[in-house]
Design brief:
The complex is a heterodimer of chains A (431) and B (118). Chain A is mainly α and 431 residues long. Helices cover 68% and strands 0% of the residues of chain A. Chain B has one domain: Dimeric alpha+beta barrel (Alpha-Beta Plaits), CATH 3.30.70.1060. Chain B is 28% helix and 35% strand. Chain B has helices at residues 11-15, 19-38, 89-96, and strands spanning 2-9, 42-47, 55-60, 63-68, 77-85, 106-111. Chain B has a four-stranded antiparallel sheet. Chain B has a two-stranded antiparallel sheet with strand order 3-4. Chain B is flat and about 45 Å long. The A-B interface holds A 83, 121, 123, 169-173, 175, 177, 181 and B 1, 87-90, 93, 109, 111, 114, 116.
């Protein structure tokens, strides 16, 4: 690509997502909107280098794409066109070529919000929500989504096609939920964003511990949400939580590719700017006085991030926050985290007795971090033989190579105290 | 946009309830149906007799084979159908969630296929 085309491509990438959202509303059809946007891009490649980039590229693209959509509809052979396509063609032709002079159409930011809620509608499966959100709002190609989730292109394409078909045929509306249903619907959206983040951050099924692209996509989506819904503290909380987790990216994996737990991380490698932003966001969210699980998890991550050494960590505060989190979600993994926090706040004996309660419930028997946490508490009490036994139980349960190598090191090394919260326990949502 | 709201509930549970309790559920359905009708969104309301009255037939090689009972043995059975004409899926979900059996059974929401000239 030459320089001019590069410039067009860059502007197009920056502008295309809001344009697509508005086109979907105007055209009421995902596929037609995508095709028309592609046509508008081709037109921009021809026009912009000659005539200069328009003052409002977004409006230019939206207007051009709408006209291209009409052309596409006109070229449909009447026998092949569905009734809804014909109706749409008529309506658009009247709007554009009717008695009124053609108005320029600009992308509307509410359209992006509408699109998010449509893509994450509870009538779609979670897999479909994720694929459709990344495709339409994240701008990822089918191949990129397939690579990120280690599934075939065909599977992704089929998921997206089915989801679009369901949206059209079951008429899933293109609208922002009313006040009454906003909270549960927003929860579904945040869930999708966090799932994308975790898939990138944890990469359980993958060689590498962090897959940067999905993390960046999730952060971008969350930033967009916070801009569109500035009054929703849980959206802010989720963004803060992800920024704080991701701030430790460089410190989480050693040069040899091994997992480094929170307590052993080189805190100089933490991304200070990201931590500052995360902490600021969490404070802003909590001030709104409507706490929720993402804000609390974000607050926990903030307490960790603000400790300059592991010993400085305010464990009693973290234990209290986990206690609060349990009020929203009573899951064994959160109980495990609370037990670990207690073991540092009150002592390993107290931690172990909480673990016993969890063990009796039986839910975490197959969960490696549970056995690793217990091994750590036992080590701190000098009960090294019992700790080794726990690590042996954890080994076959390791979810990825990094965790496996971590446990193997513990098995071959002589007693060391890990003195940390197991950082991969920290992602309680899991995948 | 037209949708069928298919009500699935355990017949056995209903049959085992006291007369009083059955009457109460019947009244809840009456209230709901009146509300739906008043909204102008109801096209039809079709409660079904229990599956013990059902006959299932198949035509194979030109022969009609009938059998006693429903199409499939499941924990919950199709007990009735509402057909509504509403704006979109969200409005259909909102009406479906008010059906008394939604709290114990399940409501399947199916768009009616749009076939011209039918």
């Amino acid at each position: 690509m030459n320089q001019a085309a590069d410039a067009v491509d860059r502007i197009f990438r920056a502008e295309s997502r809001p344009v697509l959202a508005t086109l979907i509303r105007l055209l009421g059809d995902f596929d037609l909107a995508e095709d028309a946007l592609q046509d508008a891009f081709t037109a921009a490649l021809e026009t912009w280098p000659k005539e200069g980039v328009p003052t409002s590229p977004g409006a230019w693209l939206t207007t051009a794409a709408r006209r291209k959509a009409i052309d596409r509809l006109r070229h449909l052979r009447i026998v092949e066109a569905t009734r809804s396509q014909l109706t749409l063609s008529l309506r658009l032709a009247q709007e554009v070529y009717g008695s009124q002079p053609e108005l320029e159409v600009s992308p509307v930011s509410d359209d992006q919000l509408r699109l998010i809620f449509t893509c994450c509608h509870p009538a779609l499966s979670r897999e479909a929500q994720v694929a459709l959100t990344l495709r339409t709002l994240g701008g990822l190609s089918t191949a990129e989504i397939a690579r990120a989730f280690l599934i075939s292109d065909a599977t992704v394409a089929q998921r997206i096609a089915r989801a679009k078909q369901k949206i059209a045929r079951a008429r899933i509306p293109y609208e922002i939920p009313d006040h009454e249903s906003l909270a549960p619907r927003l929860d579904a959206v945040l869930n999708v964003v966090y799932l994308v983040f975790n898939e990138g951050y944890m990469a359980t099924s993958h060689e590498h511990l962090v897959r940067g692209d999905l993390v960046a996509d999730a952060l971008r989506l969350a930033r967009g949400l916070v801009t569109l819904l500035p009054g929703e503290p849980e959206a802010i909380g989720l963004l803060a939580l992800m920024l704080l987790h991701d701030s430790r990216r460089e410190a989480r994996v050693s040069d040899e590719g091994n997992l480094v737990l929170l307590g052993n991380q080189d805190r100089n490698k933490w991304n200070r700017l990201q931590i500052e932003e995360g902490v600021r966001l969490i404070e802003r969210a909590l001030q709104m006085g409507r706490p929720g699980p993402y804000q609390i998890q974000g607050a926990i991550a903030a307490v960790h991030a603000e400790a300059s050494t592991p010993a400085d960590t305010d464990w009693p505060q973290i234990a209290i926050l986990y206690e609060q989190l349990l009020r929203y979600e009573r899951t064994p993994v959160i109980e495990l985290n609370r037990a670990v926090a207690f073991s540092f706040a009150a002592g390993p004996v107290e931690g172990l007795s909480l673990l016993e309660g969890i063990e009796q419930a039986g839910a975490l028997e197959q969960y490696a971090p549970f056995h690793i946490a217990r091994a750590d508490m036992l080590c701190r009490l000098g009960r090294h033989e019992e700790a080794l036994e726990c690590h042996r139980r954890a080994l076959p349960l390791a979810p990825n190579d990094q965790v496996r190598r971590f446990i193997e090191q513990r098995l071959h090394q002589r007693p060391v105290t890990i003195a940390s919260e197991t950082s991969f326990v920290n992602n309680e949502k899991g995948i | 946009m037209k949708y069928a709201l298919l009500i699935y509930a355990a017949e056995k549970d209903f049959a085992e309830k006291s007369h009083e309790e059955q009457g109460r559920i019947f009244n809840q359905y009456m209230t709901y149906t009146v509300e739906l009708k008043k909204s102008g969104k109801m096209l039809s309301c079709e409660p079904l007799d229990p599956t013990s009255t059902a006959t299932t037939i198949r035509v194979r090689n030109g022969k009609t084979v009938s059998s006693d009972g429903p199409f499939a043995d499941t924990k919950e059975q199709l007990g009735g159908i509402y057909v509504v004409d509403v704006k979109d899926l969200n409005e259909a979900i909102s009406w479906a969630s008010k059906i008394p059996d939604a709290r114990t059974g399940s409501i399947e929401i199916r768009p009616l296929m749009n076939v011209p000239e039918m």
